[in-house]
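User: Please predict the structure of the protein below. I'd like the answer in C-alpha cell form so I can feed it into my own downstream comparison script.

Assistant: Understood. Taking the following sequence of 362 residues as input:
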Amino acid sequence: MAYLLSNKKILGIVIGVLLAVITLTVTVVAVVANAPEKDPADVSQSAVDEPQQDPGDEPSGEPDLEPDNTVPDNTPVVFNNPDEMRGVWLVPGTDFLTGGNYDAATVKAAIDKAVADAKDLMMNTIIIDSVYKDYVLYKSGTAVSVPTDFDVMEYIVAKCRENGLFVYSTFDVLKTQQDGKNTLADKVDAAVLSCVTENAKAFAQKYDLDGVLLDNYYLISSGDGAAYASYLSAGGGMGFENYMYSATDSAMKAVVNAFHQGRRSIQVGLLTDSVWANKSANEAGSDTSAGFQALTDGYADTKAFVEQGYYDFIAVKAFGSRKNTATPFATVIQWWASLAQQKDIPLYAVQASSKSVSTETG
C-alpha cells in the first residue's frame, strides 16, 4: 500500500488538474487522486456538450453511420462521476466465476464479497471486465452471454448501487457473433457495423452504468486475410492502409453514436494501450519504444479519435514503471495528458496490481 500511495504526488505533477486512478483487482488497494469525494447518488455538477464528430472518410461501400431522422441534440449532458476516482477492476475468472462454476448462489456470493472488499478498501468505483472466456457478462443484443440463470451484469450494477459505488464497464467495439459464438471481427463491413451498433445500443439501454471503456477496436491484418478481401470487395481504390484506418474509425464512431442514442448519460471513454505511436515512427508520437503501437500495428488512430471529440474521458494502460526504458510511466502519462487537456476531458491511469509489490523499481 505504501508503494502505491507514494505515487500520488507524481500523478498530481504529471496529470495536473486531470483525475488519476490506479485500477486493480478487488484484492488490492488503489491510489487516490486529490479532489474531495462526493456520494455516487449525487449527480456530478460537471456538464459536457455533445462531442463534435467529424464524419471523416469511411470505407467505400459502408452504410451511413448517422441515425435516420435524428435531429442533433445539443443539450448539455450531466454525468454521474466521482470528483476523484479510486477504482478497482472486477475480473471474471479471478474475482468471481472461478473454476467454471455457474451456480447462481456461488457466483453471487463471490460478487458480493468482491464488492464488499472494494468498499472496505475505501474504493468508490468498480470497473467491470465484461468478457469471460468466450462469453460476455451482459444479456443484451446478439452477444453470447455467460451461461448463468441470472443477468450477471445487472446483478453487479445493482450491488454497486446498493453499496454506493460508481460503476463502469468495458465494452469490446469489434465484438461480433459467428456460428453462435462471440468473436472479434477481422474486418469491418456493413454486417459488422450493423452488429456492433445493435449490441452497443442495446447494452446502453439495458444497463444503468456511469461509464463504458471502449476496448478491442484494433484490426490486425497481414494484408492477405479477411480485411484485405473486404477492401477489394469495396473497390480497392483508396489504398489498403487507408482502408484499414477508415474501417476502425467507422467502427469506433458507430459504437460511440450507438451509446449516445441508447443512453447519453453514460460516459463513453477510450481504453487505450500506452502508446499511440513511438516518436521514431511518427514525429507526433511519444518518446517511447513500445513493441505495440496502436497506429501502426492496430490500424487505430486513437489520437485522431480523441481529437475528433468521440470520448468523454481517456483511460490509458500505463503498466510501465518510471524506470521502464520502453514505456516509462511519466512519459506515457504526459503524452496522453497533453491530448486530454486539448479536449478538456479527464485522463485515468490504469496500472497493474501485479507490479504493486514486486522487484520492478520505480
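That's the full C-alpha cell string. The chain has one domain: 2-355.
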